[in-house]
Amino acid sequence: MISVLFMICAFVFFIFLSAAVLKTVFRKELALEMRVEHYFGQNEKLERKTKKRESGGSHPLVRKYWGIGIEQVNKTFARKNQKRLTILLHEAGFGTRSAVEFRLIQLLLSIGGGFVTFLLITPVTDGQASTSFVLALGIAFLFYRYPLFYLAKKKTQRVKVINKDMSDFFDMVSLLLEAGVGLEGAIANVCARKPGPLADEFNQALDEMKRGKARREAFYSLKKRVPSDHFQSVMMSIIQADHLGIGMSKVIKNITTRIREQRRELAREQAMKAPVKMLIPMVVFVFPPLFVVIIGPMMVKIIVDGLG
Fold first, then answer.
1. Contacts of 6 (CB under 8 A, 6+ apart)
2. Angle at the Cα of 253 (from 255 to 195), degrees rounded to 5?
């Protein structure tokens, strides 16, 4: 029985591995096909697929058990941890996914990974259930923690993209303000022309303003949502200027200048760190071959001919 389960798990594993390899190889072709479908009027089909995926699958039974799992996890999930995970999801760019759904995905990955590992390791360990159980627990723990690590990595990448796009974004906003466009209109125009994480955050702030929230409160919420020190200092300057009634055109122009100076200083800092970072690879990979090439012939001559 165990050998049959092992063959089934191995077969499923190789199917998924082949699918991943094919998707990697034909990544450009798939991206081109998606763009062609997007520009030739099949957006409704893509929207239906997205709604079907968000609803938990096309089969009613899958949706039923998915809903039961959501309810059970929601009962045992502490509100404090749920709020913290919701903030982390938003900072990583997955604001549409709820914390309860993400925790359910963690549990399913952990249980599935541990179970498959137990089935695959048991025939190799000659029936030693304790060893297989320990390894399965370790894999289950790794599968449980990996999504959180992935969120932290995506959060760091998203903050880097926001810091990189800030100078061009606010520069375009400043030009539109000097042309006579209002602040909300300028931000909306730039968000439409320059999509990205920064545009998504400002679009959310504009939506909050349309629903009746004051500009200062919407910008303050925006400042709290983005975990970037540079962006938070910029938003604090905009909030203070709006509170004091200072002209936004001049303020944002000065902010753009300050952002470019900060990027210039950051580039200098990275350039100064480069020699220190290069030291370890040089010591480990460059110096030993040089010593072998320079001292090697002399050592061979000494061993063969002696010191005389």
1. 119, 120, 122, 123
2. 80
308, pLDDT greater than 60: no
Mean pLDDT (whole number) for 199-212: 86
The correct answer on CATH 1.20.81.30 for the domain covering 161-263 is: yes
- Report the share of the chain in percent with pLDDT over 70: 74
* Domains of the chain, residue spans: 161-263
Q: Please tell me the distance from the alpha carbon of residue 154 to that of residue 94, in angstroms, as a whole number.
A: 9
Q: Which residue has the tokens 């450009």?
A: 28
The H-or-E segment that residue 284 falls in is none
Q: Which of 137, 134, 72, 69 is nearest to 105 (CA)?
A: 69
What's the half-sphere exposure (Cβ side, CA atoms, 13 Å) at 110? 16
* DSSP assigned state of 231: H
Q: pLDDT (tens digit, 9 = 90+) per residue, 57-110?
A: 445 666 666 677 767 676 777 777 777 877 777 777 776 777 778 788 888 888
Q: What is the pLDDT of residues 110-120, one digit of tens each?
A: 888 888 887 77
Q: Which two tokens stand for residue 302?
A: 């000494």
Q: Check: pTM over 0.70? Answer yes or no.
A: no
Contact 110, 140 (CB under 8 A): yes
C-alpha to C-alpha distance for 77 and 227, rounded to whole angstroms: 25
**Helix, strand, or coil here: 41?**
coil
pLDDT at 43: 47
Any idea what the Cα angle at residue 45 is, between residues 43 and 48, rounded to 5°? 110
